[in-house]
Every structure is written in C-alpha cells, then in structure tokens.
C-alpha cells in the first residue's frame, strides 16, 4: 500500500480528487489535508461578493469530494515537512507519512514589507478571512447606514479592481438610495494605470467604469504604512505624502508563499514558491508535486491565476498516478495567453486576452456564469 498525500483543497486537487473518484487506483491510500472544509472557487468569488451567488454555490465542499475519492480527510493546517522521513507535520495531529506528496495551497498577498499591513489590512487570501471581514463590514453598514465610511483597496490588478467593483455593487444593492453616497471607495496602485498585465482596452474601459461610479483611483501611489488612527479608523500613508483615513483596507497585491515551504528544504524561487518542472514535479524532490499559485514552472513561469490551477488538474492527476505506478510522466504545457473575464459587479463583464479586449457586455457575464456553474457541477458534489 502506497500513501498519496494532498496538502490543500485548491482547484487542481479538487479536479484530481474527482478523477480519482472516477478512476480509483488500486493499492493507493489517499489523504487530503486542508485547513478549511469548504474551499472557494476563485471564478465565482467576485460574483459571491457582488451577491450573485450563495456561499454554497461559490464553494467546493471538500468532505463529500474526498469521500467520493475514498480519501481520508483531515481538517488541519500543514506547518512543515520532514523530507528525511517523508512526513507532513500538522498543527493538531501526529505526522502524516507519504510516498508521494502534492501541494496545492494557493498563495497569500505579500504584506510583510509594509509596516502595519499584516496587522491592519484584510488580505484577499486566505479567502475565508476575507469573507469573514466582508460580512462583518456588511452588517455594520446595514445597522447604521447613515454613518460615513471609507473603503480602500491596495492593488490595481484584476483581483483588486473586481473586488472593489463587486463590493460597491453589492452595497448599492442593499442600501437605500439616500445612503449609498455615505461610503467612499478608493483604490491605490503603484503603476500609472490599473490592470498592467492586461490589454490596454480592458485597462481604459475599467478605469472609465470606476471613475463613472465614483471610485477614487490613486495611481503611481506606493503604500508605505498602515496604522491605527482612532479606535475605529485606520490611516493609510503613501510615499508621495498622501494620507487617507479609512474603515477597512483590502490588500490585493502580488502573491507570496508561506515560509515553511522553503524552510523544509524544497527548491523554491525568490518569493518562496515551489519550483517545478514541466511534469509539475519538484525540481529537488521527485516524489513531490505542486500546482496552482504555490508552484512556479521553472522554465515557463506563468501569472498566478486560477485558470492555470484548473488546467493543471488533469495533468497533475495523471502524473500522480504515473509516479505511484513507476511509469514515465507526461508534460504539462501552459497556454501563453489566456482569457480573463473581469466582472463589473452589475451583471456585465469585460474580456481581456493578450492585446485584445471587449465589453462590458451582459453576454460576457452570462458566458462566464455558465462556465463557472458547469465547472462546479462537474467538480463539487453537494451533500
């Protein structure tokens, strides 16, 4: 009997578990370790914030998925690896041995280099903490809608733009018209324009949408410090001298990896992400695989985007099976360009691929909704 251990319930692992449910592998014991019972599907998260989806619709319930794959499920947090003994060390249970290990734990925004960010900002990941903070703020707004409030988002990539638009759209939906102007929205970005890695069309279009909706864009602004202004308010300081008082600060900047991965002895890049080859296999430890945001393809690095985690699911499953059976591994070749559909929070979306962009159109959101629901129906058993 060989032990396959999966750390994390990310998109690639969800797909791999579904494939194991369809095609069980004899003589293999599968264990899934995740610190959450329900993992968010990134494609539906902005729609959930905007109020288009329920919590269950936008989350993958890992326990029934693990049951289908006949996998043992431990709701726990991995904190280290013992690569001499081939064991995963967890926060609340004895070490878990493995013959083959796969890691798909996503990433977190890099905040540690900005004083006060780790204490006062709400990072976009891990998502459960983001959603908890959002629900708390939503309830505060509903309880006293007459109060003047200010929200700030740090990071002008697709994640920060979509988060801001979705939150504003949701609050506008639930607030009476006379209270909607009581909330100010600010977005800070260190570059001269938002969506730097997307088409110019998408950047121009979404800039115009945000400005038309009264969202304050602070471009060429590097945030240098967050601190407590009063018992209830925060202060955001920029390198330029710009200062803003706000009630919540969402942090959606470049991704980072947990320190325990590099400390374990795995080969990692400068940001701590696991370096893998074209088999999604660690370049330093051939019995370890990684996928999604936590992995960096050594010879073909790609952006940290959910589309790659989804595309890696089946190649990862295939190579885990092959490694367990001592068979040659297959290659994974990521696409060089990919389509991004950025929701406006109002039932429309802007499409961006390479230099090409169109929208905002309701049809694009309808297509995105169809794709996302189809994926969830295929991957996430309910009950």
Automatic annotation (TrEMBL):
Q: Which domain of life is it from?
A: Bacteria
**Domain FAD/NAD(P)-binding: from-to ranges:** 2-313
Q: Does the keyword Flavoprotein apply?
A: yes
Q: Which keywords, in A-to-Z order, does the entry hold?
A: FAD, Flavoprotein, Oxidoreductase
Which coenzymes or cofactors are required? FAD
Q: Which residues form a coiled coil?
A: none
Q: Which InterPro entries match?
A: FAD/NAD-bd_sf, FAD/NAD-binding_dom, NADH-Q_oxidoreductase, Pyridine_nucleo_diS_OxRdtase_N, Reg_chr_condens
Q: Which family does it belong to?
A: Belongs to the NADH dehydrogenase family.
Q: Which PANTHER family match?
A: APOPTOSIS-INDUCING FACTOR 1, SLR1591 PROTEIN
Q: What is the designated name of this protein?
A: FAD-dependent oxidoreductase
Q: Which organism is it from?
A: Laspinema olomoucense D3b
